[in-house]
Amino acid sequence: MANKIIIITAPSGAGKTTIVKQLLSEMPQLEFSISATTRTARENEVDGKDYYFLTQEDFHEKIEAHEFAEYEMVYAGKYYGTLKSELERIWQHGRTPMVDIDVKGALSIKEHYQDAALTIFIQPPTLDALRVRLSERGTETQASLEERLGKARYELSFSHQFDEIVINDQLAIAHAEVKALVEGFLK
Q1: In Å, how far from its chain's centre is CA 38?
Q2: Is residue 1 over pLDDT 70?
Q3: Would strands 52-53 and 36-37 be described as parallel, antiparallel, or unpaired?
Q4: Residue from 83, 157, 159 nearest 122 by CA
Q5: Domain segments of the chain: what residues?
Q6: Nearest to 162, CA basis, from 127, 125, 132, 119
Q7: Please, are residues 23 and 182 in contact by the beta-carbon 8 Å criterion?
Q8: pTM across the whole model
């Protein structure tokens, strides 16, 4: 079997993380691809489990050595990326990497791996529905809510570049659609 990659992206609050976790628990042939980052670990995060936490210097050395399938500076001075070695590690275990990243990263991996990669964009039914979901989390200030909605508008403008778009109006239906797409791709 040729090495394949599943890439799932979505605006914040569209349900991506929930769908990814469900797929990983139901499909043992998938394995979560751990991203590298230069941001500091949060209290409960573990290096090599949640992220590979790298110094700016280490990250830049890996960029120079072409060790990333994709990377980008997401916030000022904070880099995130997918290491080629992480994809190789998963393939060596006989599994398919499940990559949960932002729009630009997803399109970069697709460009690099072409037909070996399936890109799925999970879209909220409307921006108003997204606003409600983000508000209900209780984690957003008015300013951060508007920032996330602005980013979502921007990310939605790329949705047509993905292999598949799944509208998450009802989580169970969206999950079933994504699972069917992944199963079909892996056959």
Answers
A1: 17
A2: no
A3: parallel
A4: 159
A5: 5-186
A6: 119
A7: yes
A8: 0.90
